[in-house]
Amino acid sequence: MDTLVDMLKQIEVLRKEMIQTAEENGLNHEKCITISKELDQLLNEYERVKQVSSPKIKTKQ
């Protein structure tokens, strides 16, 4: 994934898919859990990339 915008789009797709799966099959369904794990990984990656790409704030010592 190249940009934060692309990542946000994929996060939204996975969220919708997970919600739909949970409504149809329940939260404990294997597919729902798999999507949840994939979403967690993508959210963690998004936060990591966001931190790296944002400017650092320097504090005075």
Automatic annotation (TrEMBL):
Entry-linked InterPro entries: HLH_DNA-bd_sf, Spo0E-like, Spo0E-like_phosphatase, Spo0E-like_sf
Gene Ontology terms for molecular function: protein dimerization activity
Domain of life: Bacteria
One GO BP annotation of this record: regulation of sporulation
One Pfam family matching this protein: SpoOE-like
PANTHER family assigned to the protein according to its UniProt record, in alphabetical order: ASPARTYL-PHOSPHATE PHOSPHATASE YISI (PTHR41263:SF1)
Name of the molecule in the record: Aspartyl-phosphate phosphatase Spo0E family protein
Organism whose genome encodes this protein: Oceanobacillus indicireducens
